[in-house]
Amino acid sequence: xxxxxxELVNFVLDRFDMMxxxxxxxxxxxxxxxxxxxxxxxxxxxxxxxxxxxMNNAVKYSPDGGTITVRLVETHNNIILSISDQGIGxxxxxxxxxxxxxxxxxxxxxxxxxxxxxxxxxxxEVVKAHGGNVWVESRxxxxxxxxxxxxxxxxxxxxxx
Length: 161
Ligand code: ATP
Ligand code: MG
Known about the structure:
By secondary structure, the chain is of the alpha+beta class. It has helices at 5-20, 44-60, 107-113, 119-129, and strands at 2-4, 27-33, 39-41, 66-74, 78-84, 133-139, 143-151. The strands form two sheets. A five-stranded mixed β-sheet has the order 2-4-5-7-6, with helices on one face. The longest helix is centred in the N-terminal third of the chain and has 17 residues, at 44-60. The radius of gyration is 16 Å and the shape is globular.
């Protein structure tokens, strides 16, 4: 269905904002969004799941909380969503594997934290099915930024003027 991608992201982030109060861990979410409305055709439920997965990871792998910055920008044919955390980061040797099924960086620690190691693999599958892409940049002990891009045809506002 056709939806405004900004609203979809806001829907997920609002839930995380509400959860802050219920957790001992304090994090703050910053939203830096393009002013344009981003109309895209997506499988809404599955795309919500993707954003939810990335947000869950940002919280889970930031033991000291910190700032989670969510950016939404458009290029002339893509939407790019990025989620940056100030968490534990990902070692260089693992960074190409985090999107693999069942891959988890620190097995012992990951077991304690719960989860299956499928979140990113499923997210990648969903984004690819929409013709988009996923990637990550990270520095150990500094933080990670996960990106997703989706194909996008800008709506020509000027045409209506
Ligand atoms: P699940 O999502 O299935 O509950 P999971 O979070 O372990 O379990 P993924 O979301 O697929 O699985 O992530 C795979 C691994 O990548 C994680 O176990 C973790 O080691 C690493 N990882 C993912 N996101 C981050 C992040 N924001 N910061 C640091 N490491 C991360
Ligand atoms: Mg996860």
